[in-house]
Amino acid sequence: MLDDFFTRALVAGVGLALVTGPLGCFVVWRRMAYFGDTMAHSALLGVALSFMLSLNVTLGVFAVAALVAGALIVLQRQATLSTDALLGILSHSTLAVGLVLVGFLTTVRIDLMGFLFGDILAVSVADIAVIYAGGAAILAVIAFAWRPLLASTVSPELAEAEGLRPEAARIVLMILMASVIAIAMKLVGVLLITSLLIIPAATARRLSATPEMMAGIAALLGAVAVIGGLYGSLTWDTASGPSIVVMALVVFALSLLVPVGYLFGRKAHHG
Amino acid sequence: MDARSPKETLISLENVAVRRGARALVSGIGFSIARGEIVTLIGPNGSGKSTTAKVVTGVIKPTSGEVTRRAGLKIGYVPQKLTIDWTLPLTVKRLMTLTGHFSASEIAAALEAVGARHLIDAAVQELSGGEFQRVLFARAMIRKPDLMVLDEPVQGVDFSGELALYELIRKIRDTTNCGILMISHDLHVVMAETDTVICLNGHVCCRGTPETVKSSPEYQQLLGDRGARALAFYQHHHDHEHHADGSVHVHEHSHEISHEGHSKGHSHKGLGHA
Fold first, then answer.
1. C-alpha span between A186 and A197 (Å, rounded)
2. Which domains does chain B have, with CATH numbers?
3. Could you say which architecture CATH assigns to the domain A5-190?
């Protein structure tokens, strides 16, 4: 079954969407979209460093993304520049440094476009194994830490006062983001990863009454975007990664037709 | 009330100071809260009320001084300001189990106790200020805490709603026998059931029963003559009715709130935010 490149792309993409849906909900709830973008941009730096030091690329990307997240936490404590400005600095400088370093790589020729926009049609069976093993681990951590993650999203103070540890939850979330970026980069590329985190989650909002429901629906909608996007790219011979994002956008636009509060809540019951 | 004795100390602070850089937010803070006791912190803007409450909840670690908690102390917390972003879908029912698991009947009972059972399926973003505050009380109560910390619990609630919430706090204390630390949202109405009022201004300025604090020279100096004259106490009488929608109808003739305090309430509001 996995002999066909298109089937492999579908399996890999759906596997990734099942993870980015729930994780993306936290990105939306905690307003971490720009933060996610920054971590994703740093992935290219991770790729360049991995080649220079002959490391596993997935591990290298994970390490650099996690370091950038850590650097941001440290810089935020200094409380000099706003988080927004800090993210702007980190986001673009890591991307630029990554691009410059790639230029220095003379021994290996790397497919820059592939890393920037992904090449989901080139995934191997080994890549699929990494996506499913890594994805299962990420989902397991989310499920295990769900209560502290959610409570500290609603109010860190409240979580702390009632014995949950919001700071630990925040670090766990950053490690999960770095992991998902590391496994997603090959599929959709560093420039488009955050769209798979944010668009399905944002689409799920109007269709959900509870956080758990939103996480589940986001996973399903992400899978729909992957399947629709891949078939679209096959039909019209368009780039596969961007086609998936376009499909996610189409689903999001359709969700706007559902009025706020139409499905759930008091207004739904009393008109 | 018999259940209130013997008084078991839940938490005590001794000579607590919190510094941020060179600035002392609070210093020399000492008090304790016993089971069934209501302690109210009052003081002007920036006097360290919220900082002190956060030391009690453990959100802030004191720079110096001792905080002694009874082993296994369970805290229920009603934060000063909780805005839940629209992006997070949350029903009242789901909010109730935010920090722990509770059965459907426990949730229904806790909401019933605050007169908010009919809101169980509502989205939290749809609630009015008073409704949301009641739900937050229920959420803190459901854990059966030993100590409830209420940071400006009646903020953003109109006058009759405020009385209803004080009534509710009294009821919570009487039925669960927990200790309550409350930060008063403005200085004019302090619950009469308060056992100890602590007036803060970076340090403990004065303390005592509501009556003694009201007449103490430190309090009058801190808040000015006008503030001192306006201090009133909400005394509990069965002078109002609860309605299913959470509103309360006060019978005008029988309540003993100083009208001076009420009418001046808004002009002084700025003083109450720490």
1. 15
2. 2-74+146-161+176-264 (3.40.50.300), 84-144 (no CATH)
3. Orthogonal Bundle (1.10)
